[in-house]
Amino acid sequence: MNCNAMAHRKALSLALPAPLLLLAALAGCDSAGAPADAGEPPLKGAAIGAPFELTGETGDTVRWDDFDGQYRIIYFGYAYCPDICPTDVQRAMAGLKRFEGENPERGANIQPLFVSVDPERDTPEVLREFTDSFHPRLIGMTGDLETLKQVAMDFGTTFSKGEEQPGGGYLVNHLGYTYLFGPAGEALAMLPTDQGPEAVAEELDKWVR
After folding, report:
1. Tally of structural domains, the chain
2. How many helices (H) and strands (E) does the chain have?
3. Closest of 76, 18, 48 to residue 181, by C-alpha
4. The domain spanning residue 169 has which CATH number?
5. Taking phi first (over 0 means left), then psi (-120 to 50 degrees means alpha), and beta for anything else, what does residue 74 get?
6. Tens digit of each residue's pLDDT, the chain (209 residues)
7. Rounded CA gap, 188 and 128, in Å?
8. What pTM, to 2 d.p., does this model score?
9. Which residue range(s) make up the domain with 200?
10. Helix/strand/coil for 161
11. Eight-state DSSP code of residue 3
12. Separation CA 129–CA 89 (nearest Å)
């Protein structure tokens, strides 16, 4: 990870509310070295996740409960993100591909989702190009700002538009968490994208049945 990315991630962590910092710390400790008996998922019982309706990369409405019965990987970011988003998504999707290769049946029951928090620039066309770069089944979606803020809050994350950059453009401040949810929409774990695809695949193997 380059210096800019490290500084960006540090800044994001400082913006996280204290209860979620504790949640993240607990999840991070578990994924860094879970015991042989993994026991219960680290996010079991966490009050994150809720029904939503957003606009998908094809222009159709996408609902959280469209994926009932499937495991779900979900990440909040944006396509124009210069470093963190493409790195996190690449590692998460490479880990999913590795898991699918070793466990085809279980892997097929995982639906990856990407929620853009930059609806101003992330049109359906932009989202399709972004998601297709990482995984053929990754679905991109976005919505109006008020809806996105509510969805982000429901999923234990946050975002805000940054300052305009020299020459135009802007960054979006957001938290780089990759969540795994179960078939009933229950929170299971954070995927350790910072540790690379192999660690992501290992985490999926713990919780996806």
Report:
1. 1
2. 7, 9
3. 48
4. 3.40.30.10
5. beta
6. 433 333 334 333 333 444 444 444 444 333 333 334 569 999 999 999 999 999 999 999 999 999 999 999 999 999 999 999 999 999 999 999 999 999 999 999 999 999 999 999 999 999 999 999 999 999 999 999 999 999 999 999 999 999 888 888 999 999 999 999 999 999 999 999 999 999 999 999 999 99
7. 27
8. 0.83
9. 3-32+41-207
10. strand
11. H
12. 13
Residue 94 host element (H or E): helix 84-102
Which residue in this structure is represented by tokens 């979606």?
Answer: 141
**The tokens 């020299």 sit on which residue?**
166
Structural tokens at position 63: 């609902």
Residue 75 contacts residue 113 (beta carbons within 8 Å): yes
Would you list the DSSP string of 34-64?
Answer: --SS--S-TTTT-------EEEETTSSEEEG
Tell me the three state secondary structure of residue 139: strand
